Amino acid sequence: MKALRVVLCVFIIFALSNCNKKKDDNLLSIAALAAVSSQTSSSIQATHVATAKITENATGNVITNATVTFTHTTSSNRKDIKAQTVSSQVTTNSSGQFEFYMGSYIVTLKVVKSDGTVYVGEATLTPDANGGFPTVTHADGTEFTLEMISFTAISSTATTTGTSTNTSTEISTGTSTNTSTNTTTTATASTWIARSTGGLSLWKSITYGNGIFVAVGTGGTNQVMTSSDGITWTGRTAAEANQWRSITYGNGTFVAVATNGTNRVMKSSDGVTWTAHSATEANQWYSVTYGNGTFVAVASDGTNRVMTSSDGSTWTARPAAEDNFWFSVTYGNGTFIAVAISGTNRVMKSSDGVTWTAHSAAEARFWRSVAYGNGIFIAVASDGINQVMTSSDGVTWTAHSAAEANQWNSVTYGNGLFVAVASTGTNRVMTSSDGSTWTARVAAEANQWYSAIYGNGLFTAVASNGTNQAMTSSD
Question: What is the pTM of this model?
Answer without folding.
Answer: 0.65
